[in-house]
Amino acid sequence: MDKMTFENHYMKQFDEELEEIRTRLMEMGGKVEQQLQNAIRAIGEADSKLAEEVIKEEQLVDNMEVDIDEACILIIARRQPAASDLRLVMMVTKAVNDLERIGDEAKKIANHALILANESGSSKGYTEVRHLGQSVISMLSNALDAFARFDVDAAMRTIEEDKQIDQEYKTALRELATYMMEDPRSISRVMNVLWVVRSLERIGDHAKNLCEQIVFVVKGKDIRHQK
Amino acid sequence: MDKMTFENHYMKQFDEELEEIRTRLMEMGGKVEQQLQNAIRAIGEADSKLAEEVIKEEQLVDNMEVDIDEACILIIARRQPAASDLRLVMMVTKAVNDLERIGDEAKKIANHALILANESGSSKGYTEVRHLGQSVISMLSNALDAFARFDVDAAMRTIEEDKQIDQEYKTALRELATYMMEDPRSISRVMNVLWVVRSLERIGDHAKNLCEQIVFVVKGKDIRHQK
């Protein structure tokens, strides 16, 4: 192989490796998206089997995080990427962390779904979970789409959705507090719903982080913590 | 400069750069530790001025995260570290994220301290906050000590502390639910305490993450998600 061919070959391999971690990150994103949808459905339909499935499958998401992280370190060590390639790899190590935490929150939601399904009782607060859940699923899906296309505009629009989610979250909290005051016997049950709502709000934050990372890779600009 | 001298010089500079990001991470750790202590004190002493200070200073912690992260990327791009040096830099980018989130939770605690201080009322749940707060402060302090000395044994011991914290957290939740049932008029007040207790539990998780990262740097072994 002459030098030129070797370099071309080397670059091609490098591009393929970068593409591969991106693909694996997208797969992980798809997995946590599904986990979230199932966890929310398990509440509404009191489906303890589905909830148990979400809980069991969290391990898959955890493994994905560790594997992708390892692949990133290998790429940096072997390929010594610079500029936007390096930003991409660094971004992936941050993004897997956010995805893993979304998976973790989905598992927490599934745990509460299990408790709620096993003790029959009122479905007070379920409407709030459904509404907020829909907004959060949609935000996460938009964040992953923006990621797949490295679309900065879509990422910026998705970041804005988090404000709406925070509003819906606050409204839900007020409703839940009212349910507890109206019927103190329902407190322990409503507290389960409260943690679900909290997890949904946290997932919105992680989806926002993902979008900020897209902007960082494409623009090289760190927009975290800007008010 | 002959080649040998140049290489020595180069390595010395590199070591200094690594040492510098480590020092900056420790400074950031000291800052969030202080933020946490002040936030908890602000609740017990109904000190709204102290709470406001914590809220204002979160910006400092945010800036530290962005700056240290940037320094890490620069080091990778310029120095192309390998093996344990690379692991150290990658670990720092994860650790700043955990520290920033601890700062964020401290700010949330301070926000609730402000609400609790401004509306006078019972101090139901304050004992739970004090107990759990002490455990979490101690765990974070141990995690930072283990980090300063790259002490794997201390890190492993500190990881174990998280179990104790989870137990105390669950006990506190039960107590808080009882307070709400006994006196439904106190619900909105106790909910503020509830979020504080939740934030403390989260901080325990982040301190655990820090310890796992110490093991990763020193041993090259990823122990996250091991049951």
Automatic annotation (TrEMBL), chains A, B:
Keyword entries, A-Z: Cytoplasm, Phosphate transport, Transport
Database matches in Pfam families: PhoU
Annotated Gene Ontology cellular component terms: cytoplasm
InterPro entries associated with the record: PhoU, PhoU-like_sf, PhoU_dom
Domain named PhoU: residues: 25-111, 129-214
Single GO BP term: negative regulation of phosphate metabolic process
Function recorded in the entry: Plays a role in the regulation of phosphate uptake.
Family: Belongs to the PhoU family.
Protein's name in the database: Phosphate-specific transport system accessory protein PhoU
